[in-house]
Amino acid sequence: MNTAATDRFAIYTSELTRQFGQLTAVDHIDLRVPYGQIFGLLGANGAGKSTVIKMLTTLLSPTSGTAEVGGFDIIKSPGEVRRRIGYVSQLVSADGALTGYENLRLSAKLYGLTKAERDERIADALDFMGLADSAHKLVKTFSGGMIRRLELAQAMLHRPAILFLDEPTLGLDPVARRVVWDRLLDLRHDYGMTVLITTHDMEEAGELCDRLAIMHSGRIAAEGSPDELRHQVGPDATLDEVFAHFGAGTIDEGGRYRDVRNARRTASRLG
Amino acid sequence: MTSATRAAPPAGSDRRAAASDGALETTRAFFRDATAIAEVELRKVARDPTEILTRAVQPTLWLLVFGQVFTRTRAIPTGSLSYLAFMAPGVLAQSVLFSAIFYGIAVIWERDLGIVQKLLVSPSPRASLVFGKAVSAGVRALTQGIIIMVLAYFLDVPLHLDPLRLAGLALAVLLGAALFSTFSFVIACLVKTRERFMGIGQVLTMPLFFASNAIYPITIMPHWLQIIARVNPLTYLVNALRALMVQGGTSPVGLPVDFAVLAVVFVLLIALGARLYPGIIQ
Prior knowledge:
- The complex is a heterodimer.
- Chain A is α/β, with parallel strands linked by helices.
- Chain A contains 11 helices and 11 strands.
- By secondary structure, chain B is mainly alpha-helical.
């Protein structure tokens, strides 16, 4: 359903909620992301960021509330949503037993690209991501930065209107991280893509994002541009201080065991 | 390259949605996606074929040791067939079952890696992804079929070697492996962890095997076991293999019934697997 109110927004959630048993991971959040923005969702481990992304990418159904992504309802039209989004999960989703090229070709086929489109876009993507020379090597021989760039290329082949990135630079060294940021800014510039990223890297949030929302215990604790948020906390506040102010929990809120385990595994495999 | 459909992003996916002949296009997309999945799975096997060789060890022992010994005892009534000729199709069915039943662990592994998440956000129908994986398991099982046929040939089992029956045999192996690998996939989606999955896999294989006509005929079973054997899909796989593989072998219910049972169970499992697939990431 496209209404005048939701037309401007790539992502529009209405009291989006998800419970796991007794735990309310995401608690009635209303998020609006206009087209063309890079939007950062921040928060400590277990704050609910990944759960929001999983719902918006149709991987997880909400307990209550709903959302529109690219103008389509995630519950009523998940197929339409999937055609319009790209997603790079927190985990390492490129298949290590295949070559970079084979990974790209599989994605291209699953998104229904014709052979001509496929060949052209895969060649473009490999060039753009600096992977042309390694295209026919197995991904398990790739460095962490190369894997992330490959995953980004996979998520971009069908030219999605909205890209979801869950901790895109987790476990990368500073140089590899910078390359991923540059590529993301290029993509936004070239295709006007909307990007939603989750991170708890404040440097990343400040460098990349037009707008931030800080989650705490499943709710949005603060929202605004990086500068607005800094000013709310104090005249010379850093984003780290903003994060501590709005997003830091007590020590016993350290996230679910599996999330932490997955994050560590990702970091060790990319590093 | 200059076709009009490429004008606006996301061109590829819009074309799929906008196709006028919807049903045909959906079917085409279903098989295209399934083929893409099966292809990458088979590439992985081709890169590491040790798995195929290790899988040949167990059936070899069954035929060489168990089969040879029981042929001498003549303890099991197998009609006009020698015991070895009776059990060779059973060993093939067993080898198909034993390797397919652990196939589901791959989906747990892929969930932990993040590959499942990537597949599930694509617009591909879930059933198509599950079907593609089943086909790859089926094709892999064909190599086992070839190994066992060669072995049976050298053990002087009277084999049918006409092209039509060989094609039927290949189809039965493919369908059987696809069925049991999808069964395994369904279990993996339900139990979600490697530890539980391995436990359940171990618990299931032997009952499925012994409650079938793989190494003895149903007629010598106690009544309660006969009932189980008649609802066990493995029995129908063995029936089909026996009728197609060895001279003098017949299926008590007829080949069309065997293939129909296998096909119906397979389709039901695909539908169930497609439904349960997204649950594995929760």
